[in-house]
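Need tokens for this chain, all 327 residues.
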Amino acid sequence: MSELRIAITTGEPAGIGPEVSLRAAVDSGLPCDLLGDAELLESTARSLRLSWPLAAPTRVVHEPLAAPARPGVLDARNAPYVLRLLDRALQGWRGGLYSAMVTAPVQKSVINDAGIAFRGHTEYLAAATGARQVVMMLVGGGLRVALATTHLPLAAVPKAITRELLDSCLDVLQHDLVERFGIAVPRIAVIGLNPHAGEGGYLGREEIETIGPAVIAARQRGIEASGPWPADTIFVARNAMRADVILAMYHDQGLATLKFASFGKGVNVTLGMPLVRTSADHGTALDLAGKAQADAGSMKEALALAADLAQRSAPAEAARRERHGGS
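Here are the structure tokens for all 327 residues:
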């Protein structure tokens, strides 16, 4: 790859994705391709009082909408458009054009309403790249918090927490924190599933039967893992600051604290894939769409982190791309 260039998929056209994508790209000065409908992006840029056409190094890669987009009004006819943006970014990465991908928020419900089975960016990109195990990690407020499970009903979480899953998550965290974040010996704090990490088995046995053994096995593989920690004490500053990443068992267990500490500035990073992918830590914010009031802070942080990770891991990325059939 001759130079850094980042693909920004502008997300749900009725949401704030086009706005925060434009603001982040223009303000960053980084070489970016904004993937989306050119007419929509032009009208959004003019509402933000940005000059049009956009100046280098920002470029627009046109992908036409199926139906006109109205701010705040979802339209299932545009669901395939949203996924085409992801596909074009993946195509560009495979061809060596893009060093990384930054994704603006999508509306999962309207994609499913269109008859397309879709759980989220993470799962879609994992399937498209053939990744065996991906890990969702959010960065912000001085914390890194990874998730063993992501978008599952709470009742389904205990059965999903298996030794195989935890072994894979810990291996992915170890690899990517070394290779992409440049942390020589990552310290991984693993949270228990139950209150008080099971209270010695009185409040649940997952810590004894699954989580604790996974931590021991990881240490035997040379991973600096600790736990299982009680969820209500690991985020105490003196504990959290001793870890390079905290591995939570389910979505809200880990992300409630992180979003309290960093909402609007946090970044979602997908680990375990052969490409760098980051995203904003918020949703489509349909109520703010079209009002030129959306805070682009998280999208800016996502773009900056993507550039940093891509540059740091460029040699390894080139090797991975070669193995996945890219140029």
